[in-house]
Amino acid sequence: MLEEGLSEDDAYEIISKLQPEHYAKGLDPDDDGTPGDVMVFFLPYKRQTPPENEILLYIKLKIWTDISGDAGIVMSFHDEGNYE
Looking at the domain assignment, is residue 18 inside a domain? Predict the structure, then answer.
């Protein structure tokens, strides 16, 4: 999403707006066997750069509980269909 001009803070703000209707699948174990479950969301997003059309964001999150409590990471955040 760098070409879109989104910063890390922008990505976290977008993620904070996820709602149940954006949920696509999960909780699934991580493919690499590490602790934690993976969830996928799709979020409509109006591009900030021309042609300013609406795209679908693919957001994959991983959550787990460790000795410090709940933890999580953003595994993927990109235009659906664009993996660059």
Answer: yes
DSSP 56: E
Do 17 and 8 meet the contact criterion of CB atoms below 8 Å apart? Answer: no
* Number of domains the chain is built from: 1
Report the predicted TM-score, pTM, of the whole model to 2 decimal places. Answer: 0.79
Write out residues in the chain with pLDDT < 50, as ranges.
83-84
Q: How far is C-alpha 43 from the chain's CA centre?
A: 9
Q: Is residue 60 part of a domain?
A: yes
Residue 32 in domain: yes
Q: How far is the C-alpha of 31 from the C-alpha of 47, rounded, in Å? A: 31
